[in-house]
Amino acid sequence: MSALRLTAADVGQRVSVRSRLPDPAPAGPTLTDTIGYLRSWTGDRVEIERKDGVTVYLAAADIVAGKVLGPPPRRRTEPN
User: Fold this and answer.
1) Are 40 and 47 in contact (CB under 8 A)?
2) Domain assignment of residue 3, yes or no
3) Residue 62: inside a domain, yes or no?
4) Could you tell me which of 2, 24, 6, 25 has the C-alpha nearest to residue 15?
5) Count of domains for the chain
6) What pLDDT, in 10s, does the model give residues 27-50?
7) Containing domain of residue 14, as a range?
8) What is the number of other CB atoms lying within 10 angstroms of the CB of residue 17?
9) Is the Cβ–Cβ distance between 12 and 37 less than 8 Å?
């Protein structure tokens, strides 16, 4: 993922977003990835609902890359 290919028109879609961490540790990572459904993009604020139901709030200015994903993969079932 190397480009921002998301806009407010993608609200409702399943997305993958890479963003800057607001307060990274001195020797730790500076970026994080979020996968979920884009629930809102208003002005400078983006809301993404993850699979576990947690809503992640991001500053639009902190997003460095993102794209729309297809539907989540189907779960495999165990053979009987």
Assistant:
1) yes
2) no
3) yes
4) 6
5) 1
6) 878 899 999 999 999 989 999 999
7) 8-68
8) 23
9) yes
- Residue 28 included in any domain: yes
Q: Which pLDDT band holds residue 23 (cuts at 50, 70, 90)? A: confident
Q: Which two tokens stand for residue 80?
A: 């009987």
Domain assignment of residue 75, yes or no: no
CB atoms within 10 A of CB 12: 10
**74-78 LR contacts (CB < 8 Å, sep 24+):** none
21-47 exposure pattern, b = at least 16 Cβ within 10 A, e = fewer: eeeeeeeeeeeeebebbbeebeeeebb
77 DSSP β-pair partners? none
Provide the CATH number for the domain around residue 57.
2.30.30.520
Predicted TM-score of the model (pTM): 0.82
